[in-house]
Design brief:
- By secondary structure, the chain is an alpha/beta fold.
- It folds into three domains: 6-69, PUA domain (Archaeosine Trna-guanine Transglycosylase, Chain: A, domain 4); 78-185, Transcription Regulator spoIIAA (2-Layer Sandwich), CATH 3.30.750; 207-397, Rossmann fold (3-Layer(aba) Sandwich), CATH 3.40.50.150.
- The N and C termini lie far apart (65 Å).
- The protein has helices spanning 15-18, 78-95, 133-137, 139-150, 162-166, 211-220, 235-242, 255-267, 282-291, 313-329, 348-362, and strands at 6-9, 23-25, 29-33, 41-45, 51-57, 63-69, 103-108, 117-122, 125-130, 154-159, 172-177, 185-189, 192-196, 225-229, 247-252, 275-279, 296-301, 331-341, 366-373, 391-397.
- The strands form four sheets. The protein has a seven-stranded mixed beta sheet, sandwiched between helices. A six-stranded mixed beta sheet has the order 2-6-5-4-1-3.
- It has eleven helices and 20 strands.
- Helix 9 packs parallel to helix 10 (313-329).
- A hairpin with a 5-residue loop joins strand 4 (41-45) and strand 5 (51-57).
- Bound molecules: S-adenosyl-L-homocysteine.
- Residues 202, 207, 210, 214, 230-233, 235-236, 251-254, 257, 281-283, 302, 304 line the site of S-adenosyl-L-homocysteine (SAH).
Length: 398
């Protein structure tokens, strides 16, 4: 028996751990022994007393513990974290050729065996999120290892997500290592340059998961009139323009995002004449475009997360149906709709059903041309399906 505090599970509740799913919900726990504090390592045992996992205890959260290791000999600490971080970096080296980009997700939480840890590299700057009690407990060690292995001397923290609050920690943000850059931070992705605001932008600055889907949209946009809804700092807009789109109308509700999008356009030397910008709520804007009789031959819908968990799926489904239905109403025959959902609570099957419902209501027939997922620096472990949150469909209106 180890000296670590112990969690004993209720009978039958060891099943998900035996399948290597890393979350232990409060309702699965029969007994907590040894009074662990937030972030402490606990020894997780089945009802029969057998070892199941080492996990980080999180008394404030419904996810009461997150697994560091299923191997009894792998005691959580700097050695194990160093090994995991090195493996995560090696995976990126294997799947993303360096010429693709200098902005990528180096560590993706549970999917890299490091629950709650996110690390994104933007050129010479690393942006980290410590989103779980376990990561907070090991803050200094994790940041030190990330700094050493990445070679980045400048580190920003962006631990300001809802998930961190659920773990019982206030937001924590700002420069935590190195000195502030003396100018805007710039990165390149598939040959397109972006200025990134890691301090005040959304997420850690860019939606890196859409990298390859942006590039694909660029290939599809040639000669088309494009409508890019939820454009943020111009990702799909720039790809479409670089790919030879006739015009792109970009809609977002965030004024700072649109400002940055316009700067990004200039940065890439794209003439501003083909780009139109609209600061608006997409739900209303689509209705207005339709009322005005506007039509497009390529619509991109990349909304924010409507359903973080399956509990929100029904409300989210109504939101997805609404925007997709209205997008179909401004899409010409022969036009393309690239539609995405980054809601963990909406499965790919449900998302496809929502689209089928929207098509039926719009009275159109759609051909399923392509399916999309997150870029490979957002790996998916088969035992952790929550990691597969981003899905997309390319549909052609017949
Ligand atoms: N496609 C973008 C990422 C989109 S993220 C890229 O490739 O970079 C979602 C965007 O939707 C954010 O920029 C956010 O500001 C915007 N947004 C959220 N709710 C909105 C709404 N109701 N109407 C318009 N924009 C919205």
């Amino acid at each position: 028996m180890s000296a670590a505090p112990q969690l004993t599970l209720k009978p039958g509740r060891e099943r998900s751990l035996l399948r290597r799913h890393p979350w232990i919900f409060s309702g699965a726990i029969a007994e907590v022994r040894g009074a662990p504090h937030s972030g402490d390592t606990v020894d997780v045992r089945g009802d029969d007393g057998r070892f199941l996992a080492w996990a980080a205890y999180s008394p404030a959260s419904q996810i009461r513990a997150r697994v560091w290791s299923f191997d009894e000999t792998e005691i959580p600490g700097p050695d194990l974290f160093g090994k995991r971080i090195e493996a995560a970096f090696a995976l990126r080296r294997a799947v993303i050729p360096p010429e693709t980009t200098n902005a990528l997700r180096l560590v993706h939480g549970e999917s890299d065996g490091l629950p709650g840890l996110v690390a994104d590299r933007y050129a010479d700057t690393l942006v980290v999120q410590l989103l779980s009690a376990g990561c907070e407990r090991w803050r200094e060690a994790l940041i030190g290892i990330l700094r050493e292995h990445s070679g980045c001397t400048r580190i920003h923290e962006r631990s300001d997500t809802e998930g961190r609050e659920l773990e019982g920690f206030p937001a924590s943000t700002g420069l935590i290592a190195g000195t502030a850059a003396d100018g805007p931070l710039r990165i390149v992705e598939h040959g397109i340059e972006y200025e990134v605001d890691v301090a005040a932008g959304q997420k850690t600055g860019l939606y890196l998961d859409q990298r390859d889907n942006r590039a694909r949209a660029g290939e599809l946009a040639h000669g088309r009139e494009v409508l890019n809804c939820f454009s943020y700092t111009g990702g799909f807009t720039l790809s479409a323009l670089a790919g030879g789109a006739r015009s792109v109308l970009s809609i977002d509700s965030s004024a700072p995002a649109l400002e940055l999008a316009k700067r990004n356009l200039a940065l890439n030397g794209v003439e501003a004449g083909r780009a139109e910008w609209l600061e608006a709520d997409v739900f209303g804007a689509l209705r207005k475009l339709r009322a005005e009789g506007r039509q497009f031959d390529f619509v991109v819908l990349d909304p924010p997360k409507f359903a973080p968990t399956p509990k929100d799926a029904e409300r989210a489904a109504r939101g997805y149906k609404d925007i997709n239905l209205n997008a179909l109403k401004v899409l010409r025959r022969g036009g393309l709709l690239a539609t995405f959902s980054c809601s963990g609570g909406v499965s790919p099957e449900l998302f496809q059903k929502i689209l089928a419902g929207a098509a039926a209501d719009a009275g159109v027939s759609l051909l399923l041309r392509e399916r999309y997922r997150a870029a490979p620096d957002h790996p998916v472990r088969i035992e952790f399906p929550e990691g597969e949150y981003l899905k997309g469909l390319l549909l052609e209106r017949l």
